[in-house]
Amino acid sequence: MTAQPKSIVIYEISKNKAISVPLEHESVWLSLDQMTELLNRDKSVVSRHIKNIFAEKELVRKSVVANYATTAPDGKTYKVDYFNLDVIISVGYRVKSLRGTQFRIWATKTLRDYILKGYAINKNRLIDTGIDELGRAVALIKQTLDSKVLTTVESRGILRVITDYAHSWVMMHKYDEGEIKISGKTKPKYALTYDEAIGFVHELSTTLHAQDAATKFVGMERDDHGLDRIIGSINQTYGGKDVYKTVEEKASHLLYFVIKDHPLIDGNKRSGSLLFIHYLAMNGLLFRQTGERTINDNTIVALALLISQSHPKDKEIMIHLITNLLG
DNA sequence: CTTTAACTTGCAGAACCGCT
DNA sequence: AGCGGTTCTGCAAGTTAAAG
Q1: CB-side exposure of A274: number of CA atoms within 13 Å?
Q2: Which segments of chain A have a pLDDT < 70?
Q3: CA of A109 vs C1' of C8, distance in Å?
Q4: Shared-domain flag, residues A156 and A32
Q5: Which of A63, A71, A93, A307 is the most buried (most CB within 10 A)?
Q6: Is the CB of A132 under 7 A from strand B?
Q7: Is the CB of A70 under 7 A from strand B?
Q8: Is residue A107 situated within a structural domain?
Q9: Which residue, A23, A3, A272, A285, is CA-closest to A132?
Q10: Same structural domain for residues A173 and A280?
Q11: Is residue A112 part of a domain?
Q12: Helix A315-326 vs helix A247-261: angle between axes, to the nearest 10 degrees?
């Protein structure tokens, strides 16, 4: 495996010096030489610490080491061991130096929360590429969602990844932008009606029941006309103008309201997602000109989970997030 | 077989810790 | 303060592996 890892600066030593920590395969990997620089110690010292870490069975070698090929100045390639975050932190704790101390403080503070996700994000990166990062988070869980039936523990874990991620994203944006604007530029040409919507919901519940994948309450309306109200509100006009002007905006609110207001006894996430997809499709926004989906099923699953976990005060940022993903 | 780079090991000094 | 022990450290000298 050859790797020229994408670098992200995450560890600032001082105002004008920082160490680049490469991100690869959803984790952080450093070679011996890089750790030497990071921790400001002789290579032999780092080497010895690593050896001890494995000798003392603090970590198991094969689960934390990757073998890459690097190209030396002479053009030859050598195999170099890359050590993951666990090793970097372990060595960091053994090294006695100012650098080591700083690293430990930084690692404990900054990294711990991100280890779960497998990668670290610094503030600027988060602001610049927040939406891409969510996409990455979604991609990360994609395999899991695709490949197997989830246990409760696993789905909780995945949920935590999404919500943790979303939380940081929300915080950063709130802090740095102050105000959130809702985007989108597609004019609606199709309006969803209640009858149509409830038809879809019933269809969904029939399908799910046929697959034995739902309780009998899925698709059953609560008795407060919630769904009707939601559809009314996304079609709502004020002074002859739509309150929500674009398809992106309307679709986002539709998804958000169905999940958050739970007009159905059960199956709100699934129904909301279905109506969301339907609404996008009818307004020609589900597919790009290339025929590729604007928003794939996994992303919608992630969004649905995210919305259901989100705090009501973060409604605008959720809407913002969805409209951006549609953009 | 030689060169080169990556990595390990031997060694001695320094810092530290608990104990007397 | 002095002692024995441990851990960490850099240097120098080693081994290992890739490739001409």
Answers
A1: 18
A2: 1-28, 63-64, 66-76, 97-184, 213, 296, 298, 309, 324-325, 327
A3: 25
A4: no
A5: A307
A6: no
A7: yes
A8: no
A9: A23
A10: yes
A11: no
A12: 130
Domain that holds residue A51: 2-98
Residue A74 included in any domain? yes
Supply the pLDDT for residue A243.
Answer: 85
* Any strand B atom closer than 7 Å to A51 CB: yes
Which amino acid is located at A152 in the chain?
A: T
Of A261, A273, A302, which is closest to residue A201 (Cα–Cα)?
A: A273
Angstrom distance, A58 CA to B20 C1' = 35
Q: Residue A239 has what pLDDT? A: 81
Coil vs helix vs strand at A245: coil
Together in a domain, A182 and A281: yes
Chain C: bases < 7 Å from a protein Cβ: 7-13, 17-20
Question: Are A61 and A154 found together in one domain?
Answer: no
* Structural domain count of chain A: 2
Q: Is residue A323 part of a domain?
A: yes
pLDDT of res. A32: 83
Q: How far is the CA of A70 from the C1' of B16 (A)?
A: 39
CA distance A102 to A22: 19
Same domain, A148 and A11: no
